[in-house]
């Protein structure tokens, strides 16, 4: 049985790497490409060395300083949102998985409804926040280019139409939620979803490419009740190359 330390090290090497591959930067996505073809289909009994049980989820590092997104998002709001809220979803996700493991061990599924809800809520929160932080950058182009731009023009009519729908979806979330630009692999098209909480109102199997958090914790300290102002300003710090890299990774994975 692995020691705690070796398991933790394995988590860093595998769990975090896997999360970065699916959610992270262009470089991480390219690194992930190598992993996808490693499995030896010729010997079903033989498992690749990195097929060990995944460890707990770990939050990806913030790809910039807490103050880097100011003045659009000030240092205090980024620090709290990342260190407290985002960390909380990862903690909740790991706790849900641990409790489900215990339930299986004890054969006691009396809390299965609550634990399933915790798993979906915190798991979706962890995924969406990871994409959120890697969707923002202090600089970068104002509009997407390349195949992502082509896809947006094809599926929404124009970049302006896509942007307007994304921001309107964000602005009109009832309560806490997100707007999500996603690739829907079954139909092979881009869609914009309006998620309530983290996990409600999705299409199974979509790959989120760009997400906008409209929970009050994302903007209230700085913008108070002016959600529209927050949205107009956050639209100016989108990391379109990172969004495009996720789109390319999604196209490669189908
Ligand atoms: Mn949030």
In summary, what is this structure?
With 254 residues, the protein is mostly helical. It is built from 9 helices and 3 strands.
Radius of gyration: 19 Å
Show unreliable segments: 1-46
Spatial arrangement of strands, main beta sheet: 2-1-3
Q: How many H/I helical runs?
A: 9
The CATH topology annotation of the domain at 146-252 reads as minor pseudopilin epsh fold
Share of helical residues: 40-55%
- In this structure, how is the largest beta sheet organized? 3 strands, antiparallel
- Counted beta strands: 3
Secondary-structure-derived class: mainly alpha
- Terminal residue distance: 36 Å
Mean pLDDT: 85
Described by the principal axes of the CA atoms, the overall outline is globular
Provide the CATH superfamily of the domain at 146-252.
Iron/manganese superoxide dismutase, C-terminal domain
Order of helices and strands: HHHHHHEEEHHH
Which kinds of small molecule does this entry bind, naming each only once? manganese (III) ion
Question: Which architecture of the domain at 146-252 per CATH?
Answer: 3-Layer(bab) Sandwich
Q: Output the CATH class name of the domain at 146-252.
A: Alpha Beta
What share of the residues does DSSP label as strand, in percent? 5-15%
């Amino acid at each position: 049985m692995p020691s705690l330390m070796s398991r933790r090290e394995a988590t860093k090497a595998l769990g975090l790497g896997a999360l970065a591959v699916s959610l992270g930067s262009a470089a991480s996505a390219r690194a992930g490409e190598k992993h996808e073809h490693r499995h030896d289909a010729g010997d079903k009994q033989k498992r690749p060395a990195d097929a060990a049980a995944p460890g707990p989820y770990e939050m990806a590092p913030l790809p910039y300083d807490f103050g880097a997104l100011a003045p659009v998002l000030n240092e205090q709001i980024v620090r709290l949102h990342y260190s407290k809220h985002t960390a909380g979803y990862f903690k909740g996700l790991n706790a849900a998985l641990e409790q489900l493991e215990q339930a299986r061990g004890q054969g006691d599924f009396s809390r299965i409804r609550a634990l399933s809800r915790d798993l979906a809520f915190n798991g979706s929160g962890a995924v969406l926040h990871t994409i959120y932080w890697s969707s923002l950058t202090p600089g970068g182009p104002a509009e997407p280019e390349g195949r992502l731009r082509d896809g947006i023009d094809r599926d929404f009519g124009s970049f302006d139409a896509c942007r307007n729908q994304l921001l309107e979806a964000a602005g009109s979330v009832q309560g806490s939620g997100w707007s999500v630009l996603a690739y829907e692999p079954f139909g092979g098209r881009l869609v914009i979803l309006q998620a309530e909480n983290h996990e409600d109102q999705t299409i199974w199997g979509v790959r989120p490419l760009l997400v906008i958090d409209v929970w009050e914790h994302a903007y209230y300290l700085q913008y108070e009740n002016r959600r529209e102002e927050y949205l107009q300003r956050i639209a100016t710090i989108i990391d379109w190359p990172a969004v495009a890299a996720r789109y390319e990774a999604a196209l490669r994975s189908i």
